[in-house]
Amino acid sequence: MNVLSKVTQFSSILLITMILFAGQAFAQEFKLNNAASKLTVYGTSNLHDWDVKAEKQSGSIVVDLSGTAQIKQLKLVVPAESLKSGKSGMDKNTYDALNTKKHKNITFDMKSVKSISSIGNGNYKVSVVGNLSIAGTTKSTTLNFTMNTSSSKIVLKGKTNFKMTTFGVKPPKALLGTITTGDAVTIDFNTTFVK
């Protein structure tokens, strides 16, 4: 390889590196603030509606705010046994159904952004696709939410619905099967990420 070829190759590598670095230069990572975040699971039974709240959450989001916001990465983790109803019996049935001894966490790992559109004042409507893992089963899931952005904080708000049986979770029963839980659940989240 002659000197000119080496210079050309080096210049190409340098140019590619600069382009990649420029794309990452404006991307910033924000960490989930558990104290400022809320996640509630709503469901039904043949006796009454119910809900459980996540006492612990973690995760991160990487966003490029240099122009129209672009989400580069989104990861969420909820320890399954942090879901609390305020009733120990119901919590035990929930943990049994989720097999929390074997599967400690419920996770969402974004794989792609389907759409993101500005609705003004640093607010966006977003649709992403990612892997949702519950009780050891992972499914590709679309998550729709609004995103509020500032230089120091990102807030995601949304809801998603699915059936427990989609993830191999048998809806819990109580009182010798006289109370049966509906298959469909709704997750309502208001998640805050900070630098």
UniProtKB/TrEMBL annotation:
Annotated Pfam families: YceI
The keyword Signal is assigned to this record: yes
Signal peptide: 1-27
InterPro entries given in the database record: Lipid/polyisoprenoid-bd_YceI (IPR007372), TTHA0802/YceI-like_sf (IPR036761)
Record keywords, A-Z: Signal
Domain Lipid/polyisoprenoid-binding YceI-like residue range list: 29-194
Name of protein: YceI family protein
